[in-house]
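Table S7 (text form). Paired inputs.
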Amino acid sequence: MNNRPWMLRTAIAVVVILVFVCSMYPLTQRDFYDTFRKLLKDPKDPVAEQLIADAKAMQAKNPELFASQALLAATESKGVVLKDHIKDKSLSDNRDVMSRIRKDASSSIRLGLDLNGGVEFMLQLIPDQEFLDRLGKSSGAKDREAVEERMTSEFNRYRDIAIEILRKRLEGQKIFEAEITPTGDRYVSIKAPIVAKDEKVKLLNLIAMSAKLRFRLVHPENMKLVEEYLQNPGNFTVPIGYELMKTSEFRPGKAPEVHYYFVKYDWVMDGKGVRDAFPVRDQFGQRQISLSFNPEGAARFAKVTTENVGRQLAIVLDGKLYCAPNIKEPITGGNASISGSFSEEECKNISDALVSGSFPFQIKVDAVFDTDPKLGADNVSNGVWVALWSMLGVVVFMVAYYLVGGVISVIALVINLLLLLGAMAAFDATLTLPGIAGIVLTIGMAVDANVLIFERVREELKSGKSLIPAVDAGYKHALSAVIDSNLTTLITSIILMSVGTGAIKGFAVALSIGILSTLFTALFLTRLMFDYLFMWFPNMQNLKMNQFFTEAKINFRKVWKIAVPVSVLLVVLSLVLFGAKNKAILGVDFTGGTQVMFDYQKAVPATEMEKALLKIHYDATVTYKTSASAQDSRKVEILIRDDMTKKSSNPKEVLQKYLNERFPEAKFTGGQESSVGGLIGWEFSKYAIIAIILSTLGIGAYVTLRYELSYATASIIALLHDVIIVMGIYVLMGRTVSLSVVAAVLTTLGYSINDKVVVFDRVRENVRNDEDRTPYTELVICSVNQTLSRTVLTSITTLIVVVVLFIWGGIAINDFVLIMMLGIIVGTYSSMCVAAPTATYLHNRKKKSSAAHSAAAAKKD
């Protein structure tokens, strides 16, 4: 074992694998009531069984009632304290128990809208009077009609603000893959990957929260007024400028205790100054929401509390009074707290809502739909099988090429995938198509790390070393290339995860987890397996490997003379193509379009409808939706780009007539038509652009620190080259850009930079070891030749997966896979024929400049 602590390393490997594999349980959703029974001290507790029976009876009377709502209502109607009946003593009240049941009943890995469907909320945004008054003052409008006119003209801007607030709230719940689109005049559609009925309640409460925080003064004679009110509530007159508000305190087995307050209508401070909000517990263990203000908010709060010492300050959120503490002294520290009867879930939701911001609207939930998976069951099933077959192809190739080493790499690859899925479950990540892109890139990088190591071991064996020293040297020399290539991609994914939103963040989460699991399996786990191999077979003298590629001696100087002009020409032609097509290259995710909804009697596979619509030149997205409502319970939604609807003055009638002729069994009837905004508004685009720019700069900074500036510049130029040419070919094929295409482009960037770092790592090593003062250009050409075998092998293994998915994966993921396939090919080419010559040119130019400066300085002396 070469004096390495193999027992400790084995224990670490086993613990890590077990922790993450166990995190994958359960893979499917469990029954809410069965999960409740498992939490009980006595699974047959008669009190609990009666509560379940009452809850089910409530659901039978009202089908729209969720299990958690019904069980909570049944529990509190009987005054039952659930914490007395369950095993977990850390839960404070009944709502905490409901949250725990929901969590335990949910599956370990949440699937995205594209893979498993979810829920859609149709929200109407209604400007409140306070907002309209403020808008009127700022615009100089004199009446409500003028204010409404101003509101209409600026509505899109305010709606974008509301959409980003909603997105932040969902991300606070670790839901990064929601689709939020403007719909119709003043509506917003939110689609989230939530299929558990009781999770919808939690999400609905969070979405509907306006998060308007108001600090309002309580009447100075509140106690006297409350006494008078309680003595004669029917004839009591509320003081002018005040309203009666109350708080309720739940008491086990008793009626809630109610406290009354006369609160001033006008507020002395709002929640705009809140910088952060988070749940805490006071010294008595009661939950509170701790607030910290920014400098302006802290100064305002200090002024309010200084001027009103001795009075009560009511803390009102969305019109609900939570508490009214006495101001004993001025509060100048910039902090405050909201106390009240909170569950843990409510504390988290309110904190997230306060941090994400308040709405300039009231939100009315007009409809709730369950949506089918975008890819369809057939596509998902087909995609899974195709992915398995393509993975099998990689396994066969690695074992056939590297033999024993291939078996070790395959075992590591399987464990890598288990760790990745387990980590996604542990961190509540959502698995989507962009997330699968991150997994595919992870597979490619994991294979690449093993290929790097095995090729270095092969070189060490050729140099005459015995097996164990050769393996040691192989890992040692491959270490920097493996770490640098993975860390450059990790920098990208971390920046995308912190700055990006939506699908971009989902991709980044999966990729970040995958990179860390790849480093663990490639550098730690495979090394441990080699140690066990040598321990079990001490007489092993050689590690046989096949070699399809002998040592290459390509004259890349001649290749570059042709490749560089060709690349420049392709980049220019691609840019011209983008300019000529303009917005026509953008899909409905960016441009928005027309949404047509029909009722139907028999569902037709969504992919069949999409293929049929393509025949009449409608590039459409088809989604099935259902509602718990008895009327209009089943609908099919067809989303078409706006420029396509110009083909007909009435696209609804055209679609209905054609689809009924093509699919008479469906019997499409009714029909609603509305305008739908893009998934990607300006705020989303801004964050995405910032994320990509920061990622590029991060890569440049890291490569500069680890290598030199010319390498970083060459890498960035090559990455731009890859993106432009890949997108040029893609657009030339008549395809449009969607969110999944953006994720695929990010995948190719990660793959491409990985490839380039490996080449530059070998260049650096050859420069360090060069004792013959070989010209720099020759060293670069030698390095490209030395890494050519690894480059081709990695590309082949990754292409096996991607090509199989492209041919047999189905139409739903075809665009996505096409980008990845083109990216692998172009990225591999640019590593050898763009990044390498660019770095060579920049390095030689710098060297000549330095020599010229030195000569000039010597001449002066």
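Next pair, protein 2 of 2.
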Amino acid sequence: MKLPMEWAKSFAPFEATPAEFAEKMTMTGSKVETFEREADAMSNVVVGRVAATQPHPDSDHLHVIQVDTGAGEPIQIVTGAANLKPGDYAPVALHRSKLPNGAEIRKGKLRGLESNGMLCSLPELCLTTHDFPGSSEEEILVLEEPAEPGSDAAVALGMDDVTFDFEITPNRPDCLSVRGLAREAAATFRVPFKDHTPPEPQGKGDVSTLLSAVVQAETCNRYSAAMVENVRIKPSPRWLRQRLRHAGVRPINNIVDITNYVMLEYGQPMHAFDYAYVNGGKITVRMAKEGEKIVTLDGIERALDPGMMVIADEKGPIAVAGVMGGEYSGVYDTTEKVVFESAAFDGPSVRATSRRLGLRTESSGRFEKGLDPNTAGPALRRALELVVELDAGDIVGGILDDYPRPRAQRTMPLNVAAVNALLGIDVSEKEVIDILTPLDLKVENGVITIPTARADVSRDCDIAEEVVRFVGYNTIPATILSGVAKARPTARQLFEEKCMRVLVGCGLWQCQTYSFYSPAGFDKINLPENDPLRDAVKIMNPFGEETSIMRTTALPSIFEVAARNWAARAESCAVFEQATEYTPTPGEEDLPIERQKLVLAAYGPSWDYAALKGVAEALLEVAGITRWEVRRNDAGTTFHPGRCGDIWVQVPVENAPPELVKLGTLGEVHPAVTESYDIKPRLVAADLSLDLLFEASGATPQFRQLPKFPAITRDLALVAGEDMPAAEIAGAITSAAGKRLESLTLFDVYTGEKIGPGKKSLAYSLVLRDAAATLTDADADEIIGKVLAKLGGMGVALRQ
């Protein structure tokens, strides 16, 4: 909703700069999106008075104009326009001026004569003949009224007003009007609201002898009509044209401008019918009949159905109620009699019709919000008042008004205690009344009378909202909620937050991707044709092929993120996502199974398999999982065979021993996959089940006393088969050493001639400690002996 400042001040005489007005209105609940002043788009443009004109001596189409700009001697300007004469006033762009169309003007020479600026036409000022009727866009604009030479041309042109653009919430249709926003401004700045009550129209004759109006549709709450005869079509006065332009509406002629002006001032859409095209002089508000059609004002033929409300005469529909008039329902230069319509149509009905016709208008947008039927009458009287003021015609006596179910004002008790309890502040009854009264919420004997335009006010919380808007949200002290349960995160939420912190601490960035993608993603990650993951949930109304299925694996999503970073020339990238995967269920009506995953992807100098495995180990540690192992994976299609592994964790089973379950896979991504994503460096990734990680997580870590007795460190250099996993050897050492093994670290791996082909050397450091006594060398030797015995049974020997 656009609000010209000058128009608002005619109702509420506040004093504020545009920035102050925008700030205070926003803080009291009427959000200002932006504001602009037409004059800000131009500079150094003044009013000039033509002192003399003469033809250019060396041109048959140029003219030399002497212009008084209030700076002493007249300045000389050469122009091609021939419509100026001495005594005319025109806008002059001086040397180093800027125009609204972006042009910058400097002095120069034309055909040998100096020209010290430019006389402006309408297009150069971003104006049209609708703004200045009688002018030509091909000629210099001659001002309608004299002005002081040298004064700001923006003032003379009516371009100095400020227009505010408000975002109006759906529950405040009363603010879709200048009056509504001006009332808010009056309450905000604590100034009187100067409302205007249109007088009862005084006309000749009786409208009921020329026109009848019948409401048959239940979706029409009120229908009012009046008639004007001897219509005199002409341009509207300048003040009205300027207000319309600043409000974003193009001036047309006096009759059409009146309907638009009233719509903006009252928020009540109106329509003017040429009486000559109302067949039979009878208007009926009814639902459309099957097969009926109408050509609307935009020249398009539209098919109607029985669910659409229309305005009809004896022959058929002449307008779509609340949306747009018919082809012959406008006002023409030949119009002699006009029917003004002011109605209250049902919002949902208008919205449904607008959607089915694919036709949204300023009128339909307002009706959809639910307008007050009690505004229709005053709006019609205001239109008739303007007809008289603008001498646009002669009013026919009487008004047709079909209003079978008048909407009455509502009342509710004023409960100051409830308001204070809701807001957590202490506002007196007098303060509450002083806030409500300027909003037309009158309080008498403890009872609030609610105007019919404020359908959003009905409960104590609504009154509290009105109060806090003007008390100020920033004045409410910060307190803990009372009377409600204190919300706490669940164990799962705390666990997820802990995992996210670990991943961020390891140097990864969290990202968020869509849960749907293209089936082509399966091919890009080398998923086999018969893989169950290709059976995905298909979206019925996708944006396109690229978002047509719900993901069954989040790897394509995280790979796309890595690919975008590589395409943006990022030297390294490490990202993760807490992603949801969707597995379809057999029944068509059943919802898919949702599983939570942690997917990771990284490339760069510091990222390889070992680095990513370290991240996985950090996750397992924070989850409190102590029993886990990594098994080599040689059958990968998405991951590089032999350069990836599966993590298996121990999960508790009710009434049964714990079992090892696959948590996920991590390792280097297959070269064919990185090539399909145009990623040049080696890419490592992990696909881990967050659900299983939580299920397998251990108890909360408990405090353990620092050891009282010293530890013994022993190193073992072992020789094993090249294919034997290091994790298997570590597991055997841990099992044989028992509880007195405090830590085990693999610190060296060697292959070479010294140990023979098909062999590898692994060096482990063992830290041994007894919590109850000091270990002796004999105790340590005994433990090492057990370890070597167990390793020997696996074909692992001590390196000589």
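The longest strand covers residues 639-653.
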